[in-house]
Amino acid sequence: MLNLVIFLPLAASLLLLALPRLGARAAGVLWIATTALDLLLVLGLWATHDGGMDHQTRLRWIPSVNASYHVGVDGLSLPLLALTALLFLVCAVYSPGRGRGFAALFLFLQSVCLGLFSALDLLLFFVFFDLSIVGMYFVIAGWGHGDRLRSALKFFLYTFLGSLALLLGFIGLYLGAEPHTFDIVELTAEPPLADSPGAAALVLLAVGIGLAVKTPTVPVHTWLPPAHTDAPAAGSAILAGILLKMGVYGMLRIAMPMLPDAWRRYAGVILVIGLVSAVYGALVALAQENVKRMIAYTSVSHMGYIVLGLGAAGMAGNAAAHRLAVSGGITQMVSHGLLTGALFLLAGVFHDRAGTYDMGRYGGIARGAPVFAALTAIAAFGSFGLPGLSGFIAEFQIFTGTIGADGAATAVAGALALPGVLLTAALFLRMLHRTMLGGPGPDTGGITDLRAAETTAIVPLLALSLLIGVAPRFLLDVIEPASAAIVSLVSR
Amino acid sequence: MMRENPADLLPELLILGSAVCGLVAGLWLPRHRQRIVAAVCAAGLAGALAATALAARGPRMTTFDSFELDTTTHAVRAVVVVSALLVLGLAGPLRGHPRESELYVLVLLASLGAVVMAAASDLLVLMTAYLLASIPGYALAGFAKDARGTEAALKYFLMGALLGIVMLTGMTMLYGAGRGTAYPVLAGGLAAAPQGVVAAGTVALLAGLLFKAGAVPAQYWVPDVTEGAPPVVAAFVTTVPKLGGLAAAFRLASEVLVHTSVGWRALVAVLAAATMTLGNLAAFGQDNVRRLLAYSTISQAGYLLVPVAVAGRSDLAEPALLFYLAAYAVTQLGAFAVVIARGSDDLADYTGLARRSPWLALSLVVCLLGLIGTPPTAVFVGKLLVFGSALDGGHAWLAVVMAVNTVASVFYYLRWIVPLYRTGHAVPWTPRHAASALAVTAAVLSLVLGIAGGAVFAL
Where does the NADH:quinone oxidoreductase/Mrp antiporter transmembrane domain lie (chain A) (predicted)? Predict the structure, then answer.
C-alpha cells in the first residue's frame, strides 16, 4: 500500500502529460481527486500503524553498491506523510484552473516528497532529495512572479550544492560501514565509523551542511527569502510546509541515529546554530516590509527551535527531557507545515488581488474582507505559539525539554531562545495591525474577501492545528515512541 | 601458450568487414542510394553487438598476446557500437551528400580504433589503435569542406599528429626502460627501471591518451571541432574516441602504472581537477549550443579521469569508469540529437521549443539534467560511483572539487533549459523526425540506465 501511496500521484502526473487535450478544469478535477485518494490511503496507513516499521518493501536496485529500493513507515515518517498528502490536497483545492502542466508538476513533487519521507535507503533518500529541488525549481521558474528566474537559480544552486555535500556524506557512511551498505535500517542498527571519530566528524559535517542548507539554518538560509517571495502561493506553501522538513527529517532519520557519537560530541555547536537561527530569524523577520519575506524568515526561526531541541537531545542530561525535546521537534514539523502553509496561501491572496506584498500599501482590510482577516489572524496567533493551537504544543515541549535537561548550557540556550517567541508574537501582531486594522491603505480597495476555493483550502489546515492544540494525543501517540527510539539511538 | 583464435575478435572483424563492404559498395552506388551503405554498416554493428553479448559470457583472457577480453573491453565494445548506431541514425541531414558513404565508413573505422584502444595491452597495438581512431576523425572533421570545417580539421590533425609523436616517444622510453611493450612485461620491468625515464615516458604516453579524451592540456581541438564540423560528426568525435582514450588510460594505469612508484596518481588527479574546472568555467559564457556542449564534454572528461587516478586503489574505480562512460555517451548523443533535430546552434533559437515540440524539449531537459548528474538519470549513478571511488581511493579533495564543479555546471545547463519553456518568437521550423525520435530514445535510455542500473551491473 505504501508503494501505491508514493507512486499514485506520479502515475496521475504522467496521465496528465499523456492527455494533451485535457482542459484546465478537467486537469484540476483529476488533480484534486488523486490527492484526495492519496490522503485517504495515508489515513489507511495511519489506522493500521502499530508502532514499529510497517509496510516495508525492499527491492534490489544497484546491487554492486548495496543500494536498494527500500521503503517503510514508522512514527517519525507517518505524521510527515499525512502532512504531505494533506498539504498537496489543499494546494490542489487552492489552485483551480492553473492548467495541466502545473498540476502534473505538483503531482510529481508529491510523489517525490512522499518517497523521501518513506525512504529507508540513503541513495533512495538522496534521489528524492535531489528531485525535490528540480521540481521546486520548475515551480518557481515556471509559475513564479517578480525576479523569478534569478530566485529559482539561486535556490537551485544553493540547495544543489547542499545536496552534493549530503551525497559525499552518504558515501562516507557507505564506506565506513562494514559490509558497505546504503541501507538506513542496517546503518542504524550498527552505526558506521564508531571507532574513527575524525572521519565521523567529517561525515557529520558533510551531512550537516547538506541538511542545514535545506532546513535552512543560519548562516546558510539566504536562498530561502527570495525563493519564497517569487514562488507562486501554492509553491511557497509546499516549499515551507514540506521541503524544509526534509532537512530536519534527515537529521532525525540519518544524522542522529547513524552518527550518535559525533552528534553528542558536537551537540553544543548544533544547539548554538539552532539558537542563533531561532533568534536571528525572528529579528530579521521583524524588519521586513514584504509579507512573504517576513513569513519566510519566521520559518527560519521556527526551524531553529527544532534544531535547538535536537541539539539539546545530544547534550548530557536526562532522557525524559530529551524525549520531550525530540517529540516537540516532530510536532513542530507538523505544526509549522499546517500554519505556515496556511499563512503562505493567505499571503498569496495579497498578490492575487493587488499585485504586491508590501505591508505599507494595505490597512483596514478586516472591514472589507472579514474572513480573510480572521483566518490570517488565527494562523498568525498559531504561528507564534498561542495556547490552543498546535504551535504552542510544539514549542512548549521543545522549551521544556531543552531547559529541563539538567544542564547549565541547555538551560541557558533555552532561556536565550525564549525571546524569539516574543519577537515572533510582536512581528505577527505588527503585521496584523498594519494590514488588517487601522485606516485603509492605497491598495486596500483591491482586496476582496476569500473565494470559496481559498476558504475550503485554508480552513482545514487551521482546524487541524486547533485540533492538535486542544487534543494532541492522537498525534503524540504516534510521535512519542519514535522520539523515544531516536533518543535511545543517540545515547548509545 | 599463446592464444590466437580469430573468433575472439569477431566483433572487431564484423565492424571492419562491414566498413570494407560499405566502402566498396559506395564506389558503385548512385548518389541517392548511398543509404544502402548505412544499412550495411548498421547490420555490421548489430552483428558486433550480438557477438559482444555472446563473448561477454566467456572467461577473462588475453588473445594474440596483446588484446584483453575482460569487462572493460566488453563494456567499451557495447557502448561504442551503440553510440555508432545512434550516430548513423543521426546522419539524416547529410543524406544524398556526394560523400555520404564515406561518412559511414569513417565512423565505423574510428569506432573500431576506439574499441581496440580500450582492449590493447601492448604499447604497439595501442599506437596502431590510436592512429586508427584518429585519422578517420580528421577526415570527418573536415567533411563539409567549408572554411570552419577545414580549420577544425587542421587544428585537430596538427594537434593529434604532434601528440601522437609525443606518445610514440613515451612508448619508446617505456620500451627501453621496461624491456618490452606488452603490459605484463612492462609491469615487471618498470618496477626496477630508473624512475626518471619511467616518469618522463608515462607523461609523454598520457599526452596522446589525454588528446583522445579531450582533457587538459590537450583539449584545444574540442570546441573548434564541435562547432566547425557537421553536427553529426561533432556528436561522434566528442563521444566515441573519448571512450577509447579513457578506457586505454585506465587499463594502462591499472595494469602497468600501479606497479611503478612514480607519482602518476597525483598527476592524473590534478589534470582531472584542471579539466573539469576549465571546461566548466569556459562553458559559462557560450551562446552557441555546440560550443557549450563542447566545453561541457571537456568537464565530463575531467570527471571521467577521476576513476583513472584511483585505479587499483578502489574496487569502485572500474565500474565507475565503465558506467559513467556508457551513461555519458547516451546522454551526450541525446543532447546532440536535439541539436540536430532543431537544426540550429544558436541558444536563442531554443526559446519556446516546448510549445513547438514538447517531447523534444522534455528529452533535452532529461539529457541536460543528466549531464548535471541529477537522479534518476544514468550519469547520476555514474557520478555516484565516481564520488565513491574518489573517497574510497583516498582522494577526498578530488570529490569535493568535483562536487563544486557539478554545482557550477548547473548554471550553464539551466541557461539552456529555462528558455525552452518561455514563449518564443514565431520563426517557423520543422523538427527532423529521425533525430527527434533518437533524442527521445536516448533520453529514455538514460532514465532506464539510471533506474535499472542494477540490471546492467549484473551483466
Answer: 119-414
- Domain of residue A373, residue span: 266-492
Residue B138 reports pLDDT greater than 80? yes
pLDDT recorded at residue B285: 86
How far apart are alpha carbons B267 and B262 in whole angstroms?
10
- Angle value at C-alpha A480, between A478 and A486, nearest 5 degrees: 115
Of B376, B403, B457, the CB nearest to A64: B457
Give pLDDT, residue A208.
Answer: 94
Residues 6+ apart with CB under 8 A from B353: B342, B360, B361, B364, B419, B420, B424
Concatenated DSSP letters for B178-235?
A: HT-SBHHHHHHHHHHS-HHHHHHHHHHHHHHHHHHHT-TTS-THHHHHHHHS-HHHHH
Contact A62 B453 (CB under 8 A): yes
With 70 as the cut, is the pLDDT of residue B456 above it?
Answer: no
Residue to test with chain B: of A19, A64, A132, most B Cβ within 10 A: A64
- Which residue has cell 545512434? B86
Residue A438: left if φ>0, alpha if ψ -120 to 50, beta else—which one? left
Q: To 10 degrees, the CA torsion angle through A62, A67, A73, A77?
A: -120
Question: Does residue A58 register a pLDDT over 80?
Answer: yes
Give the gap in angstroms from C-alpha B315 to the nearest C-alpha of chain A: 10
If you average pLDDT over every residue of chain A, what do you get? 91
Q: Let me know if residue A356 belongs to a domain.
A: yes
Q: In A, what residues contact B, Cβ < 8 A?
A: 20, 60-65, 123, 126-127, 130-131, 134, 138, 141-142, 149, 153, 156-157, 160-161, 164-165, 167-168, 171-172, 174-175
pLDDT at residue B426 greater than cutoff 70:
no
Torsion region of B179: left, alpha or beta (phi above 0 gives left; psi -120 to 50 gives alpha): left
| Residue A222 dihedral angles phi and psi, to the nearest 5° | -70, -15
The CB density around residue B192, as the number of other CB atoms within 10 Å, is 11
The DSSP call for residue A446 is G
- Is residue B423 within 8 Å of B328, Cβ to Cβ? no
Residue A86 maps to a domain? no
The maximal CA–CA distance of chain A, rounded, in angstroms, is 69
**pLDDT at B458 exceeding the cut of 70:** no
**Nine-digit cell string for B394:** 583516498
Q: Is the pLDDT higher at B322 or at A446?
A: B322
Closest CA–CA distance from residue A13 to any residue of chain B (Å): 14
Q: Is the Cβ pair B376, A127 closer than 8 Å?
A: yes
How many folded domains does chain A comprise?
1
Does B455 have pLDDT greater than 70? Answer: no
CB spacing of B399 vs A168 below 8 angstroms: yes
In a domain, A417, yes or no: yes
Task: Establish if A222 belongs to a structural domain.
Answer: no
pLDDT of res. A147: 86
ipTM: 0.83
Identify the pLDDT of residue A410. 87
Percent of chain A past pLDDT 90, that is, above it, reads: 70
Contacts of B400 in chain A (CB under 8 A): 168
How would residue B457 be classed by pLDDT, with cut points 50, 70 and 90? low
**Worst-scoring range by mean pLDDT, A99-113, A131-145, B322-336, B345-359?**
B345-359
* Chain B contact set for A172 (CB, 8 A): 391
Question: What proportion of chain B, given as a percentage, has pLDDT over 90?
Answer: 66
Residues in B whose CB is inside 8 Å of some CB of A read: 316, 319, 358, 369, 374-376, 380-381, 384-385, 387-388, 391-392, 399-400, 403-404, 406-407, 410-411, 414, 418, 421, 453-454, 457-458
B458 interaction partners in chain A (CB closer than 8 Å): 63
